[in-house]
Design brief:
Order of helices and strands: EEHEEEEHEHEHEH
Largest sheet: 7 strands, mixed
Structural class: alpha/beta
Radius of gyration: 16 Å
Strand order of the largest sheet: 3-4-5-6-7-8-9
CATH superfamily: STAS domain
Number of helices: 5
Strand content: 25-35%
Amino acid sequence: MSPPDAQAGSARGGRPTPEGPPDLLHDGLDTREGSTFSYPPMDDLDISSSEPIRMLRSPQGTTQIWTPAKGLLFARIKGPMDIRGAHAISDEIEQLLRAVPKGLFYYDFEEMTGYDDASRAHLLHFARRVLPGVEGIHVLVRSRVVAFGIRTANVVLKIVQVYTDRTPFEAALRAALRDKRRGPG
């Protein structure tokens, strides 16, 4: 199940189509107000927030990004990640790090099938630059190619927790959501 694609809303960069909602396949990042994100098997995990989902679509895949709690960013990629998806993620992280001293990042890359060299280089360079503002990076992967790339980057970053099983990834995310929503103290 994917986010509510048919839900009406506004889009940054989207053109209205004759049928109504913006044409997301061609126009980039969607910020539909009031969107919630739910997909099996995480339906029981409350990752909703007042923040809209930012969604970037291409014919090959989808990048979805949102902040379910202050200081916590969640991104999900289905299909291959391209440079537009990499820039969308880094732009959202920049925005989050302007609002909090440290950010916590969860990436559901279980359905990510690969990435191009430009995306890999951009995200590694970006991560090295913002590393002092990173509390933690948690990545769920299935693809051996993606897992190898992330583990290789972690040789430099030394902060990435890689998961190949959804259960511990979701447990860590639940704990982080609880902590972030509870606030300091």
